[in-house]
Amino acid sequence: MGTPAEGHVMKIQALEDRQAELWEEMSKLDCIFIPPPKSRYEFTESEYLNILQSMGQAVHIFGLDGRLFYWSHSAENLYGYTSAEAVGRDICELLVSNHDMALAQVILRRCTMGQTWTGQFPVTHKTGRKFTIMATTTPFHDDDGTLIGSICVSCDSKLFTDTQVSISDPQEDDMSRDADQPQPQPLLTATVSKITKLVSRVSNTVRSKMKIGKSNLFRKNKNRGSLQANHGLCEAVLSDHREDEISIGANTPRDYPRGTPVREQDFNQAHSTVTSEIPTSSDYNRSWSSYYFNSGSSACSCGSSSSSATRKLDAEIDCLNYEIMWEDLIVREQIGEGSCGTVYRGLWCGSDVAIKVFSKEEYSQEVTSSFRQEVSLMKRLRHPNILLFMGAVTSPQRLCIVTEFLPRGSLFRLLQRSKSKLDWRRRIHMALDIARGMNYLHNCNPPIVHCDLKSSNLLVDKNWSVKIADFGLSTVKHETYLTARNAKGTPQWMAPEVLRNERSNEKSDLYSFGVILWELATRRIPWENLNAMQVIGAVGFMDERLDIPEDVDPTWGSIIESCWRREPQSRPTFQELLVKLKDLQKQYAKQFQATRAASADAPLKQV
User: Fold this and answer.
1) pTM attached to this predicted model
2) Domain 46-161+184-245, CATH 3.20.20.10 — does that match?
C-alpha cells in the first residue's frame, strides 16, 4: 500500500485527466466558450491618492485635537483656503463662526470619541460668505487600530436643494414645476453611502502616506504641488499629536502620599491593570451595564424629523452644562479601586471632591456608553441620601465622574473597623437613610433599579448620614420586568432571581438591602467562607440564606427575613420598610431614655 502522499498525487492526477476530458467534450459543442473576465488589477499607491484628490467632494482629515493634517483640492475649491493655509489650523476656528461654535464643539467631541456624524452644518468661506455643507465624518484609525482623527467628506448642500434638468420630457417638466419642494433625500443617501465606502477603501493608503519616509511618492506627481509641500507638515502635526497624548497621560497612580498632589509623570503609570476583589474595603466601583447612545446619525440629520433632531441637539448641548476640564482638577490620594478604574480624592474650585477615573485601556464602546449612562442618570438625581453629581470630564484622553467627597468612606469599611463605634441607634439611622434613598429611586418616573446595592456602594459623611453611590449598573425600569443582564454585580449581595439570570425588577434591590441590614447587625462579611460560584449555587439554586444570630432584635430579624423571601413580589417595598424602621427607631429611643434616666438615678439612691 502506498504512502498517503502518493495517494494524494494519484487523486490530483485523476482530477487533471478528468478536466482534460471535459475540455475535449466542450470543444465539440457548437458554442463559443467565453472565459470570465479577469479581475481588475490592484490600484497602485499613486492611483489611490489620485482618486482621493480627484473626488468631486471635499475631503479633509483632522486629528483628535481638531487640527487639520490633510486638505484635498476639492476642499480648496469649496472653502477657498489652499492646503498651505488650512493644514495645521483648528477646523472650527477655520470654518465656523462664533455663533455656531458651541454646536461645532459638540460635534467635534463626538468625532474625537470615534463616533460617526452625518448632517448639514453652516460654515464660512474664506471670503466671508456663509453657506451650508452636507458632511459625513467617520473615524480615522492608525495601522494598529488606534483612533488618530476623523475623515470628513463634504459638499455644498445647494447641490441637493437645487434641481436642474437639462433634458426632460415635457410632462416631467410640468410635474417638476408643480412640486412645492425638491426631494433630494434618496440621492443624498446614495451619494453619502458611496463616498463613505470609497473613503474607507483608500484610508489605509492615506495612513501609510502620512508616515515618515514616504514623501517620495508625492514628488512623482508634480501637478500635486500642494500635497508635496504639505507632507512634512502632516508628519509634524501627527508627531506633535502623539507627543501630546504621551504628555497628557491617561492614568492615575494607585498609591500616593495622602494630601500630596499627583504629578503628571506619575499619573501616566497607573491603570495598566485594574482588578476588583470581592469584597474589599476599596470596592467602590463595579462593572458597567450596556447602554448605547446612538452615534450613527447626526443631530441635524436630514433623514430625521425636526423634533427628534432638536431633542438630540439638546442632549448634546446639555453635556456642556456639566463638563469639567481636567486641568481644573487637583488629584490627590487614592481612596478606592474597581474593575473600571480608580477613585481619588481631589479638589475642584476649592471644594473636596471624589474623582472616578476610568482606566485608559478600558475605553471600549461598552465602557464609554456605560459612562454616558451613569452621567445621564446621576445628573438628574436630587436627594439628601443620593451621592451628589458635580460634573464629568469627557475628553478623549480621560473619562472621569466628579462627585462630592464623603470623608468617612464606605459603610463596608466602617463596619469592618473594630474601633468604629456604631450603637444601635446609629445603625437604625443608617438603615433609614438607605431606605429613604432607595425609596426615592424606586418612586422616580420611570423607576430606577440600582442593581448593585451593597455596603461598599454606600458612603458615609462626617455626620454619619449614608448616601447611595455607584450607578454604573443601574437601570431605568420602562417595563414590568428588567431583562436578564448576565448577573453583573457582586454575588454576595445579589438576589436569587438575578443569580439565576432570570427576569427581575426593583424587588431585587430589597434582597440586597436585607443583606446590608444583616451586615449592620453582625458587622461581618456576608458568605465570607464561600467563593463567588459557591454563593451563586447556595443562594440562587439551593435557596440558602445567611444565618441571623439569636441576639439580634426580633423586629430587626423579621425585617431581614421579609427582604429575603423567595418570591420577589412577596418582599416589602421601601415605603413599607420605612414605617417599620421608624417604629423601631422610636422603640430604641425610649429604651435609651429609660437607661439614661436609670443611670442618673443610681447615684441618688446611693446617697
Assistant:
1) 0.52
2) no
